[in-house]
Amino acid sequence: DIAPEKRSEIVKELKECMEGKVESLMFKHDLARVVQLLLRLAKSEESSFIVKELLPHVCELSKAKYGKFTVNCMLKNTSPKQRKLIFKSLSGQIKKLTLHAEAVTVVDTFYNDYATSKERTEMITEFYGKELYLYRDLLSEHFTKVIELYPEKKDKVLEELLNHTQVFIEKGLTGHIIVQHLMLQYFLHGSEDTIQELVTEKLVEQLVKIVHTKEGSKIAMRCLWYSKAKERKLIIRTFKGHIKDMCMNENSYLVLCALFDCVDDTVLIKKSILSESWKILTSSPCHKLADY
To answer: Which H/E stretch holds residue 138?
Structure first.
């Protein structure tokens, strides 16, 4: 903890040293930490010069190994008005940034923690293709609105979503909420045959990491329902050792319910699932999800 007087003194000194030079500091790991410190200590009006100097470079910073932490720090420690300016700098580049291994954390942080409903819609519609992006003000972040207003565009947008979903899986980006939301739109409206083809070993390995979120659990359930017996067995094996956490989570327990619903191999279920879940029931019988 820093006393208010000392804090004001530090902020004043840092501001005098950095004003007009922020851009040159940003791609050096140790100096970037100083910028982040000032963002945390200063009031939004005191650190506004940082936002102003970095706005033209937000996309480039988001892609940098250490620069992304500064952008996230800006999002956390600036005013709503300043965050709108940051979003304006990102707008139109959301798709490219989401497909970038470093920048996706910035996009996901904004989408999950700070974006308004209108901003989320704008972010999501970038993935629906250029034509629909022009009509983003009429849409919502859910694909059902696209079908309702532009039914003739359904197949084209599903093709776009499928292409993005394949890239997300291949790059291992499925742990991010915005990615899960986009994938779920395809899993809800795409063909069962194509979804079955998506359930590869690469996706199966990632499922256990996403079952605890609302969107991730829905994706995992559809993977179980639409996959072949071989892939279902692989999915069950990846759950081994995670059953306790899954049983006690309001989203992932639904995945286990779906598993019991569609898997006929009782020996495998008993060995991989029930042996672990029984221990939980005996140790936590009063847990709110125990009845399920």
So the answer is: none
